[in-house]
Amino acid sequence: MKPYPQLPFSHNSLKVFESVARLLSFTLAAHELNVTQSAVSRQIKTLEEEINSQLIVRKHRSIELTERGKALFEVLRSNYIELQALLEKWSLPEKKRLVIKSAISFATRILIPRVRELNERYPDYEIVIIPLIEGDWDLSHENSDVAIINTRQPELYRGHPKATFLRDEYMAPIYAPSDVQTFKSIKEVLEMPRLHATDDHLDWRAWLSQDEDIAVKPSRDTSFISLDLAISASLAGHGATVTDLLLVLPELERGFLRTPQNAPVRNSPWQYFAYLPQQSDIATDLLLWLQRLFEQELLRLEGLAQKYQWKLA
Q: pTM of the prediction?
């Protein structure tokens, strides 16, 4: 049994009819299809006989579609447009993808502000940024081009043939200045509500443990699941958080965030590594771009440390 028993045997006659109905001219349709006018006329006649319906009314100098002709043309036009769009999509070269995985805070504060720069640097690639919760993840089946790992277990990656050390973290407390008080002392900042990027409060504990003299009990603690959330809460004026200052350089330079003068800036237990699952020119180039970026940002941080007399480790 035929799957579509009512369809005419020759699908070419449908194509010819669509052209005639769209152009409302046998002559123009013949020109478009690169056939003779008589061939077009025969195809239309054959189609009308096969479906037992008059589709076109032939007049002295023009043609008109019958009601059935109009209905058939609308169905054909709609499906031909969809088919053309599908075939055009298939004919386009598939765009290559540059897949970058990183912790949420790195994706939000380092990569997203530089999406335009990445697009200009790699115009033939679709930039795909996949954010993950801070910490280590299973790399045994990693399929990204570059995975940027923020880890407190650097021994897992140091010396690994596919991993490259990127940078340390430079940790200090930050807060959003108020209209009343732009600069706070270290003691005043430590008395503020404390915002934590992890529920174990590691960043604050690591920063405070090296100088017990400045340990002050805060008014309260709030914990988040990512460093970016803690930074956002600090920007909103909800308290102070200890963060990697390289993640908030623009806010520090513009005065949206402050770090107390004379504050110690310490290396944290966390370090950044770039993991390249498969060696490729594009991944290697992105790695070099990241390394140059961090060199430039460290110089900016050193300038701020000198300006505000931070004790940069």
A: 0.68
